[in-house]
Design a protein that fits this description.
Number of helices: 21
Radius of gyration: 31 Å
Number of domains: 5
Mean pLDDT: 83
Oligomer: single chain
Low-confidence stretches: 296-300, 536-550
CATH class of the largest domain: Alpha Beta
Strand content: 15-25%
Shape: globular
Length: about 625
Amino acid sequence: MITYLQIENLSKYWGELPLFDGISFSINEGQKVAMIAKNGAGKSTLMDIIAGLETPDSGKSSLSNHISIGYLRQNPELNPEDTILEATFNSSGELIQAVKNYEKALESHDSRVLDSAIERMNALNAWDFELKIKQILTQLKITNVNQQIKFLSGGQKKRVALAHILIDEPDFLILDEPTNHLDLEMIEWLEKHLEKAKGTLFMVTHDRYFLDRVCNEIIELENNTIYKYKGNYSYYVEKREERIQSLNAEIDRAKNLFRTELEWLRRMPQARSHKSKYRTENAYKLQEKASQRRVEDEVELTVQGKRLGSKILNIKNISKAFGELIILDKFSYNFTRLEKIGIIGKNGSGKTTVLNMLTGSMLPDSGTIDIGETISFGYYRQDGISFNAGDKVIDVIKEIAEVVDLGNGNRMTASQFLNYFLFPPDTQYNFVEKLSGGEKRRLYLCTVLMRNPNFLILDEPTNDLDIITLNVLEDYLRNFQGCAIVVSHDRFFMDKIVDHLFVFDGDGQVKDFPGNYSDYREWVDEKEREQRTPDKREKILKPKPVKEGVRKLSFNEKRELEQLEKDIANLEEEKNEIETAMNSGNCSSSELVAKSQRHGEIRELLDDKELRWLELSEME
């Protein structure tokens, strides 16, 4: 088995702070591996080192010389002057260059250039590859390939970079948070694409369903130690719990033994024998083991929100549009106490716009939003992070409150609250500028939650947060004694939190679905299965009633059945001939268009004739 990646005693420091120190692991051909670690543990830095974009302080990272690499960074760096077409097809591969030139030729409307491009496509038999590229671009909603990169949003740039890597088909894919900035439809497509792909994969993701279905091995980086789990996320959760219980038992045993050895050390005379020295050394080893921090069970945190009155938030016939783009069309809803609602929909469907209207930062075109007098919003925005780089973490929190009211007479200091959200005391006195992107998001989340809101609005709160933080946030929200609206592409998160969904279907229509995301997905799949069954087939399954007995085929119907069998065979043969010709590379552009049209006609004829044959054969 070929080793694609070898990490040996790798270390990297941020100033005096170790991101990781002396870690080692390897990835072999065919493995699909995910890394799980807390924010700030250096996951993105590690990936940059592997890709050769950053150097380690010590140790070695080696990639096989005979493989191609594709690296998707959290924030890809693309040439702002390039078009999407240039950025997507930025590869020296013959097939990719042929498809790129063909796409340019189509835009040029120059027949000589187009003929030359088609000739090259035919020579390389690149039509199947061109179709695959079109599927990737379509699934990632990349349409205007002539648009320049400098006019794209961060999410659009991420999708362009992802499309480039998938089209390039490298031997070894390295993906840093690939699901960020993708809507649920795109995530599910990418999940299936990577699940079927035969290549090797190393990725960091917080999407637990995605991780569960794509990866076959988990690497966990915790307390500067690498733990390997030969299985998916579900297997990892089970085995990690076993590891923690075993570790805690070892620490407890070490503490009990050390108390005995400590008493012996105190009574031990100064002149020690060789045997005594050995026991002394062993006592110090026990002390080191006993001093390890015991992994405690998760603590439940219930922050006391402001009192909720009888009226929460009433929406009546609100509408919003930007030109021809309709976001909402006469939407009405009255919120009730303690309900938690998820919002899903494609990118650009107006989810964030609706949140801004609810909180008053944007006005609807028509309709009313009536907010109860007791409502105190806590709004976590996608782009809401704004800290002074020179501030310390603890100072950011203390500016809001020195103490957090947990209700029932319980209180928590700012430092304790930070510690709950995975900022240990030594990190609390770090400067904000030294925090990772995920740590800054976690700090921003703390500033929203500790203001004691009774109506939470969370717009993509899971982006860049590690899985450990997500578990803490999920526990918090389950115990939250207020209302909550959550926009998230994290299906696992939505399943654990929400009671029902607002589904943005487009054209201003919003469906209120009674269930979580998995319930909704199951319902959609069932509807699609029903729609794939043609109406004609339904008629066949419900034959016309007859007065007496079972009707037999007439003479003409028997002849029709025989003819149908011949017609179907002939159409199948013609269909196969057309497909062979289209893939041969010997067709001109006009011939390709004509054959493609005929191919579609044959498929429709076959559908009709096969259904009629089925109807007659059931009466035979």
